[in-house]
Here is the input.
Amino acid sequence: KQEVTQIPAALSVPEGENLVLNCSFTDSAIYNLQWFRQDPGKGLTSLLLIQSSQREQTSGRLNASLDKSSGRSTLYIAASQPGDSATYLCAVSDSNYQLIWGAGTKLIIKP
Amino acid sequence: NAGVTQTPKFQVLKTGQSMTLQCAQDMNHEYMSWYRQDPGMGLRLIHYSVGAGITDQGEVPNGYNVSRSTTEDFPLRLLSAAPSQTSVYFCASSWDRGLTDTQYFGPGTRLTVL
Here is the structure.
């Protein structure tokens, strides 16, 4: 059974730092991996989608990488800002076309 | 485009009561799904639909029913609410089950069962 883990559960860093969020999964048979952002009391917003054949995707200050063989993905945030404070969730699309989710990393950027 | 809308935003029920959580999307997406989110856990799939008239169970379907009479609407029914169903519920939609296109989420319904 596919399991997705995100460590750490929470992270607090000063504004301006570059940071990396981690996501690991147990079964490499995935169709894609997605990173989402969740703000308190709101729904989820898609940030990046990486197909299983891809190694990385970039959007602005965000870069996500995927290493299927090791079951790992990282979300790199450059020059962090207070507005980046949110919970970041990763999810993999498994062999049954269903999304399996990690519990998220709560990120706080201190001004 | 309103995207994915959900009503109500908050709801308090007593054990044994029933209710329907509403979900609608205006993007003509075929795929719609319901998730629940509990503290410290990832989202878990309750039910999903690949088109009007077609529904199927997800990981945690017990105690919930769904129907899909139109492309736009996908209501979730709690048959007899239990405290274990206290959670935040999210509805999502996408073109193709999220294989090539991401899923779009509603703002959620926070449900408390006393």
In short: Chain A has a mean pLDDT of 95. DSSP finds no helices and eleven strands in chain A.
